[in-house]
Amino acid sequence: MDFVHKEIKITGYSVGGIETSFILPHFKMAFDFGRGSEELIDIPRVFLSHGHLDHSSGIAYYFSQRALKNLPPGEAYVPAKIAKPLKKINDLWKKIEGFSGAGSIIPLSPNEIVPIQENYFLRAVESYHRIPSLGYIIYKKSQKLKEQYQNLAGHQIKKLKEKNEPIFTIVDIPILAFSGDTSIEFLDKNPDVARAKVLIFEATYIDEKRTVERARQWGHTHLEEILERLPAMENEKIILTHLSKRYQEKYFVKVLQHRIPPAEQSRFVIWNKDRPYFL
User: Fold this and answer.
1) 3/11 Cα distance (integer angstroms)
2) Whether 46 contacts 30, CB under 8 Å
3) Residues contacting 267, CB < 8 A, separation 6+
C-alpha cells in the first residue's frame, strides 16, 4: 500500500532490526536499501542513512540486478565515513559473482546538496546513531512575494509584474525529512525537520517496557520524546517507522491510539512492514 500526501508518494518496508527501505517514485529515488527489494532495482538513486545491515545489506544486490537488467548505473549516496569500506565490500561481491555490478558509491557529508529534479533538491543532515549516519531533507524552491509587497492588492501586483519589477524572492520549503536511525537530537538540532510537510521518523520503542534511556543507549528514539515535542512540530504528516519487531499490529495500534492525543491522531501514520496504518 502506498502513502500519498500532496506531491509526495511513498512505498516501502520497515521493521526495526529486520529491514528498512522507502521509495519515492515521483522523485525516482529511495532512502535505504533494506535487503534489496525488486521495486528498488528500477530506482536510479538511493540515499543510505547508515551501514547497519537492515538498512544497507541490499546494496550489492541492487547494483548487480541493475546490470542484469541492462539499466544505467545506479547511484548510492552514503555517509562519507563508510564510503570506502562499502566500496571494498561491493568490489568483493563483483569478484565473487564474476559480474560487474552497475553503479557508483558517492560519499556525502552533512549539509551537502544534491539536485533531485527541477525546483527540488536534497540536503544531507547530521543524525545521531551509534555509527556514522545521515538523515535527509528534500526542499522545494518556491516563489514568495517580498515582504514589502505582501499587503498590496491584486491589481497593484499585476502592474508591478508588467513593469518587470523584482517582487518575488526564492524560498526553500522543506517538504520531506527522513531520519534514518537516530536519537531525538536529529529533530532538536535541525529546525527544518520540524517544518517539513512530511516527516519520516523512527520510533523504535513506544511503551514503558523499553524506556527513553534504553532508546538513547542504542541511538534510537522513543515515542515519548516525540510526543513531548509535538506542540512545536509543524509537520502535516508524521510517519513513525522502524518499530521494534516485538510489537504486533493490534498492540501498537492500541498503544498509539491511547498515547497520541485524539486531536493529533490525524497527523500520524504508522509504517509497519510493507504498509502504512492510519489512526
Assistant:
1) 6
2) yes
3) 235, 236, 237, 238
Calculate mean pLDDT across residues 156-177.
Answer: 77
Query: For residue 264, what are the contacts with CB-CB under 8 A and spacing of at least 6?
Result: 230
pLDDT in tens, 112-134: 999 999 999 999 999 999 999 99
> Three cell numbers at 273?
512492514
We find that the CATH architecture of domain 3-278 is 4-Layer Sandwich (3.60)
DSSP letters of 63-123?
HHHHHHTTPPPEEEEEEGGGHHHHHHHHHHHHHHHTS---EEEEEE-TT-EEEEETTEEEE
Residue 4: how many other CB atoms lie within 10 Å:
11
What are the domain boundaries of the chain? 3-278
The rounded distance, in Å, linking the Cα atoms of 94 and 22 is 26
Pairing of strands 74-79, 120-126: unpaired
